Fold this sequence. Notes:
Number of domains: 1
Order of helices and strands: HHHHHHHHHHHHHHH
Shape: globular
CATH architecture: Up-down Bundle
Oligomer: single chain
Mean pLDDT: 82
Radius of gyration: 21 Å
Structural class: mainly alpha
Distance between the termini: 69 Å
Number of helices: 15
CATH topology: Na+/H+ antiporter like fold
Largest sheet: none
Helix content: over 70%
CATH class: Mainly Alpha
Strand content: under 5%
Amino acid sequence: MYSIFRDLAIIILSAKFLGLVARKFAAPQVVGEILAGLLIGPCILNLVQGSDVLSTFAEIGVVLLMFTTGLGTNIKELLKAGPIATFIACVGVFVPLVGGTLLYSAFFGFAAVGTPEFFRALFIGTIMTATSVSITVATLQELGHLKSFLGTTIVSAAVIDDVIGIIVLTCVIGASSGEGSSLGGVLLNTVLFFLVAIGIGFVIHYAMKWLDARNPHTQRITIVSLAFCFAMAYLAEQYFGIADITGAYIAGIVLCSMSDAPYVERRVDISNYVIFAPVFFASIGLKTDISGLTPEILLFSVCFVLVALATKIIGCGLAAKLCRFKWGDALKVGVGMMTRGEVALIVAKKGLEVGVVDSVYFTAVILLIVVSSIATPLVLKMLFAKMPPVPHPSQVK
Length: 397
């Protein structure tokens, strides 16, 4: 029983230390936290083993992570990019989804539609769909192009990309759950959930704005917001078979235009940053199984990274070109969308929980995150240095 306190102490200290080391080497802190899980887990030192309590902490961490992501969404900026960002995001999900499915099938054999092996291949493609919004924003901000039309388009497309990716994740998990639900039934449940979420969200939005106006910057705002987050996560999972992270993300979107949204985001992020998020990211490393890492799996991991990067560049780049961007700017859009991070981990972890993907494939996901997180800033810097931004045709008078 009391061993959980020892495990938490080891996880938090090692995750934060290696997170800071990763940041010193210009890599995302999340990479260090994942490596900490690998280091202290069964793979190397075997200091901490997975447990139900740690799994619960990790689940809370991922729910809060998606909630704060929704809270930080700028609806006005999201709508400003409009159809262009949506089209880029849709193509940016479809091409990697197909590419990942074909890659797995090429390695392990093509399976009939509806079989467990088919859903395993489809899930590998689903992992490839996610784009890391945080890493993209940080990179564009550092390069001074975050507020340009090009930067706004990339960030908006990345946000929409994650929304579509979560919907795809929900459909794939539901259809592969073995509970007899058809894909049509899953899509119906998804639509029903979003309709219910819109109805609840409309009421909660105005109720929270009323409460916020009378109790600005108070703990009760954070408490009620958290309660709404967990309620939506429960509603999504329990009654609609939708991933709990979808409910948490929608809760964040509902509250993101509230005056105290940044305040709530900071307060929630403190608790999550200190304990729950490190446990979540470290748990990825703890659950990563390298004992079954064969030369074939290693080769697959390398090809997984290459296909994931190439399909984002090609899909998003060509979509941007179809939206009348110049070739140089279209390439920047593709490269800006290729970085992966938290959402890819969340998708992979969900697949592991429902048995759609084996833990050995976490090696490929972690490798993709590390490579894309380091390569994206470097390539974008080179592209922006050689090819100055070109205004979109809609901006030219």
